[in-house]
């Protein structure tokens, strides 16, 4: 399995699992599983996006499947099984004489250790029967990931001593003798412990897939964005998942490998960049995406530069942090990896003339990496216009204007370069009523 390359800055910029600015994290979208282990599985998926087309498609198909079963056992029962399997006390081989000799003692005296063993054994037996029933009834048109899970279940249940357990306990899962409990306990906690953990992993997989499927259906996400091994890249109806009643937009890499976004402050450039990058991230996790449809290259790396901090400890200014970050992501591109790179407002930490010249210089370098896509937002119209006729660049802007002395911002993404200049109007509007004492 091949994983997508990324880094801490990108995790932070996209608020995957934590956010420095108290934003809602993306992981919270799909974290409402019924089991703790199901939650951890979703977290693992989200923390480790893939660059493996086959694995991505298997996960997409499993999540999109409309016949995912209810949880095979209750959450409390699964938690108890986990506790029982990790319980290290009293593991011993079954002995008929000992089991018979202690029957009366076990009936008369409450033993918490014995309770754990008895209930744990009965729940595991119940789990085995539920898994066998689900595996036997699986439809032939089930997704490949489900078929692989069934194959694993059958291999474990019918290729080991667990097959005998199923045969001996059919119809009497709750009526087990002391000897049977002792015998199965040794089998479960000692001989076939790893096999049972593998079987439990199927339950958690079903929980994770079912939860993600439900969320995607509620939010009308796209289950199966199209992943391609070319540089074709387009989205229809993209929106940031945490923008309530947000404006959906469509976008495509219409030419070249660089897309420059212009537009005024508050028009939504940063949010749009995040929405696009998040869509790519989720698609590489094999998870549903907040778009109507999507064609996405199979990238080998995703890197962003959105919320860069300066550093008092290192004596590093914001401008220096920007330069070093751009150098860092360009070093990734030099390796030949197919990457998506998002640069939000390059060189905001320096004066206007330096920012124009530096942006033009960087753009000239990025054109050489035709195997990568660069999404760049900027306020500097002179920089965008420098490359207006360059075939390596395409242009989009966020619509915004002043109408009847009112700032109108529909958050629509349009092709071209913005001519809107609203900064002075905002300053004048908000500061003009200040009175000096």
Automatic annotation (TrEMBL):
Keywords: ATP-binding, DNA damage, DNA repair, DNA-binding, Nucleotide-binding. Residues 256-435 form the DNA mismatch repair proteins mutS family domain. One of its GO terms (biological process) is mismatch repair. It comes from the Bacteria. It holds the Pfam family MutS_III. GO terms for molecular function: ATP binding; ATP-dependent DNA damage sensor activity; mismatched DNA binding. PANTHER family: DNA MISMATCH REPAIR PROTEIN MSH1, MITOCHONDRIAL (PTHR11361:SF34), DNA MISMATCH REPAIR PROTEIN MUTS FAMILY MEMBER (PTHR11361). Belongs to the DNA mismatch repair MutS family. This is DNA mismatch repair protein MutS.
